[in-house]
């Protein structure tokens, strides 16, 4: 919308670079072009404002396929007004000279024209296409048909409108039909997922079986080695017992031999000692047998004196001495000696 200001009964219009302004005064074209700025009187001015930028027109409509299935078509048409003079002559682009607001709805008229034309060609294509083909190849075929139909429409060039691009966003069936169409694919995907799950489980079971077999083999090998260890320990114990018994036997025999030798040595020593003692005793007896009675008495007294406690002093009377000598076998007259 143009920017209009008021000054002392005059109006000043300032337009954007993307709008084409046509100013008529008393039936004569005074200003014509884009991005104009000028003063005018509202009572004598006739203004038209035509947008010349690219415009996007979104459209949505229903169609029926050859197998009588309803589908929804979503498309977008990009257009622009290439000839503002023709567009202003065919459509009402006039604006209020005081407010700059369109008096009519020219863009809605263009949208209706483009939508009905595009819908006509889309319906023509989808009416000859089954639902499955429309969902698979319908977007490209509808886009091609709509673009060709809009290019061949004579009213568009006559109105100064050029179609820049046509895009078909989607072709969708009804919700129930769409769910029904999705079911086989979902079932197939689910079957593939189940198959993958079963294969994964089978692989897991196989791996668990291999692990169990490895564990069992390890246990068997461990038991076999334990058996060998027990046998080896028994062999070692028997060998140790045999070696110990042999050592004990050798030690016993050695000890017995040593004791025998000791006993023999003791016996020999006892014999020799006894013989020596006997010889000493015989010699002693022989000496005593050869000695006189007085000598024997003196020896007896000496032996007795050796075994008596120590006597510091002794006093003997003559009577005792006489009796003693008498017992020793001396004559009484010997006392005076």
UniProtKB/TrEMBL annotation:
Out of the domains of life, which is the source? Bacteria
Domain Band, first and last residues per copy: 34-197
**Pfam families hit by this protein:** Band_7 (PF01145)
Name the record gives this protein: Band 7 domain-containing protein
Q: What is the lineage of its organism?
A: Bacteria, Bacillati, Actinomycetota, Actinomycetes, Kitasatosporales
